[in-house]
TrEMBL record:
Keywords assigned by UniProt, alphabetized: Signal, Transport
Annotated Solute-binding protein family domain residues: 106-515
Name this polypeptide is given: Peptide/nickel transport system substrate-binding protein
Annotated InterPro entries: Peptide/Ni-bd, SBP_5, SBP_5_dom
SUPFAM superfamilies cross-referenced by the UniProt entry: Periplasmic binding protein-like II
Organism expressing this protein natively: Nocardioides kongjuensis
Cellular compartments annotated: Cell envelope
GO BP: peptide transport
Length: 623
């Protein structure tokens, strides 16, 4: 048996097994609790008398282990610690509130804009310090911005949110007008909502008096000199990726968050945080340690929860029928779709393998594929979401201020007959269960389209993360539906770390022709869900090289215009033009032991970003 044959057989077996599991689940599984007020389960009130001490164990997202300690990530980096070690300039608002940010957890007051939108003033709060005793000051934010400028000057992929011409290119000057005030001059007006939620909320002031070096034990350099900034950035980025030094490198012990890194296992990605004794922010941790434990599968995580071996974990939607069992084991369960989340199949418009770039450039092809995605069916299926998801058809969710004009009415609802008609009307011979081919090449209204030759097959690959199971099953269901219309989609399960590293045309150009679509799971668009960093033709997080002049025009308007309808026009067009194929927004289901408590919002926030957004400083064991 050849390697190709064996891999094809393995994929067939996986698909068949998943279909059998779906069928079995539909006859034996118990219905999960219904959603109430958009949520699965309910949040318990804060309770019990806090006890100091104890160790909280938190599951890491399956397949996602840290790859850097440096808090300025490139497009392929996975930083450790989130806001727990080095605090964000602005903390995300609590789930369920209308606040712009979490003001208490933020290091600065909300930015103030000049009347023409070209000057931004940021006032840092006083009283916050680094663990080495130095205060958190305006120079620390200037240091961060100078390093980001240096990073993108060396390579555009060095700042995950970089869009050429946007931040930091549009910053003509950044100055510390006093110890706690930073003033940014911009080259053009910027929408305040965009700046806050797409730029400022991603910034972290960094310790400018400890990290302004370009070698171990090196001299402290003037980081405002661009040449020095490049040297400092290069050194810190390289040091940050040495996994074996995560817990021992003195650089990473300078923190201002509620925790410091105590241990790190480079072989598994697991790590332990201990409280930062010099922490000066709100809610210092009461526990002795927080262990972040790695898992190879969502099933393994569920097993540990059912065994009572985890304090905090997540439940894949495919296991939503286990809610009762978990509650009987002494866990609270709460889930809802992440705010501003999008669950796309990312399309690689630059993949030339088998003329995929020519085929997928045709809007009617993308429309036909979207018609094959059974969002309502996936949501109801006990083998996919078990009811723990909500439909979504654009880059903003229905019911939000920036929802597309079509609201919750799908532009391309599940309709295989409509998909077939689109293909046959454009020159394809659809052979159900066989191989669909182009029989009418050309660029006319009834032809296949530019660059698509006679006999072209509709065939491509789809890479997807091997966890969670709900994503795997939805992708297999989509592949099966396409097969019915003679569209061959080869599914390949990969570790999430692999997908982050490789399925990115800007970060990994050598891999460009090896993937046609990818399912990396959810993206979070932010409270102002402009797709600037995701789908602008210039964006370096534009994984699949989407390039549409009208989309660029609308994105530019949403970034720079003060017109409140500008972003609605963008989200409407993107839902209709299909830069991605849209899947339902799955509930992020948080599970935590009733042995711990804390503010309800601190647990509800787990549904925003899942376990990667855990903020355990507010949790405590209670009597």
């Amino acid at each position: 048996m050849s390697a190709i044959t064996s891999r094809r057989s393995a994929r067939t077996l996986i698909a068949a097994t998943s279909i059998m599991l779906l069928a079995t689940a539909c006859t034996t599984a118990k219905e999960p609790p219904a959603h109430k007020d958009g949520a699965l389960g309910s949040l318990p009130s804060q309770s019990g008398k806090p006890k100091d001490g104890g160790t909280i164990s938190v599951a890491l997202p399956v397949g996602l282990s840290p790859s850097t300690m440096f808090p300025l990530p490139s497009s392929t980096d996975i930083p450790l610690g989130n806001q727990l070690l080095v605090r964000n300039l602005y903390a995300e608002a609590d789930v369920g509130t209308d606040d712009l940010v979490n003001a208490e957890q933020s290091l600065a007051e909300l930015p103030e804009f000049s009347s023409d939108g070209t000057t931004v003033t940021i006032a840092l709060k006083e009283g916050n310090t680094w663990s080495d005793g130095a205060p958190v000051v305006a120079d620390d934010l200037v240091f961060t911005i100078d390093l980001i400028k240096a990073a993108v000057g060396l390579s555009a992929v060095n700042w995950a949110s970089y869009v050429p011409g946007g931040f930091p290119d549009n910053v003509t000057s950044v100055t510390a007008s006093d110890d706690h005030t930073v003033e940014l001059k911009l080259s053009e007006p910027t929408n305040p909502g965009y700046f806050l939620h797409s730029v400022a909320i991603q910034l972290k002031p960094l310790p400018s008096t400890a990290w302004n070096i370009a070698a171990k034990d090196g001299a402290h350099l003037d980081f405002t000199d661009p040449a020095n900034a490049k040297k400092i950035y290069t050194f810190l980025a390289e040091q940050g990726r040495v996994l074996t030094d995560f817990a021992t490198n003195p650089l990473w012990q300078t923190v201002n968050g509620p925790f410091r890194l105590e241990t790190f296992d480079p072989s598994t990605g697991g790590y332990t945080l201990a409280p930062n004794p010099a922490y000066t922010g709100p809610d210092p941790s009461r526990v002795d340690a927080v262990q972040f434990r790695p898992f190879t599968s969502t099933q393994a995580m569920l097993n540990q929860l059912l065994a009572g071996e985890l304090t905090v974990g997540a439940l894949d939607a495919s296991f939503a029928t286990q809610l009762d069992a978990l509650e009987k084991k002494g866990y609270h369960v709460y889930g809802r779709p992440g705010p501003a989340a999008v669950n796309p199949l990312v399309i690689n418009f630059a993949n030339t393998t088998g003329n995929f770039d020519k085929v997928i450039a045709q809007l009617y092809v993308r429309q036909a594929l979207q018609h094959l995605i059974d969002q309502p069916g996936y949501i109801k299926s006990r083998g996919v979401y078990n009811g723990a998801a909500a439909p979504n058809y654009s880059t903003a969710q229905a019911g939000t201020p920036y929802a597309p004009e079509f609201g919750d009415e799908a532009p391309y609802p599940y309709d295989p007959a409509a998909a077939k008609k689109l293909l046959t009307d454009h020159g394809w011979k659809v052979v159900e269960g066989g191989t669909t081919t182009c029989v009418s090449p050309g660029t006319g209204p009834g032809n296949c389209g530019e660059g698509i030759p006679q006999g072209q097959e509709l065939s491509f690959n789809l890479l997807y993360a091997n966890a969670p199971a709900s994503n795997v099953n939805r992708d297999l269901a989509f592949i099966s539906e396409a097969r019915k219309l003679g569209i061959t989609i080869t599914g390949e399960a990969k570790a999430l770390n692999f997908l982050y590293k490789n399925t990115d045309n800007n970060g990994s150009p050598a891999y460009k022709d090896k993937w046609a679509m990818v399912d990396q799971g959810a993206f979070t668009m932010g409270a102002y869900p402009s797709a600037s960093i995701f789908l602008s033709s210039k964006a370096f997080f534009n994984l699949g090289s989407y390039n549409d002049p009208k989309a660029d025009e609308l994105i530019e308007a949403s970034v720079h215009s003060t017109d409140p309808k500008a972003l609605v026009a963008e989200t409407t067009y993107l839902g209709e033009n299909l830069p991605w194929l849209f899947m339902p927004n799955v509930d992020n289901i948080a599970v935590w032991s009733d042995k711990i408590s804390g503010p309800p919002a601190s647990f509800a926030n787990l549904t925003a970003y899942g376990l990667v957004g855990a903020n355990p400083q507010a949790w405590y064991f209670h009597s």
